[in-house]
Fold this sequence. Notes:
The chain has helices spanning 2-12, 18-33, 45-54, 65-85, 87-97, 111-116. It is built from six helices and no strands.
Amino acid sequence: ENLLFWQAVQEFKTCEETEQIELSGKSIFNDFIHHTGKHQVNLNSKTSKTVKAAIKEPFTNELYDACQTEIFQLMKTDSYRKFLQSEMYKEVLCLELEGKRLPWEESDEPATQSRKKGFLSFLR
């Protein structure tokens, strides 16, 4: 949820047209801030109240800046630490250190050749 929220706000900041800002802003609120949101993030009460009051005004690209900063800090201090302790991370790290193919590498090339293309090559 936290990463999805952070990414949604990054996209929201690029909106230029008033209608697009309004639609995207409402979508973020409904999905991540509202208590019935399907991906509700954990914000402190002060930040949450500030956003709830601000959505009654015309939306601006800065609407979720404080929320995004708070969620980023949470990810940095909590989510990332938990990820580093996860079994998934440990398994992938072992595969990487042993020079074995990583789960997202589907190429017929040897693992070392695939890695020379860069970590993000699997996104293409």
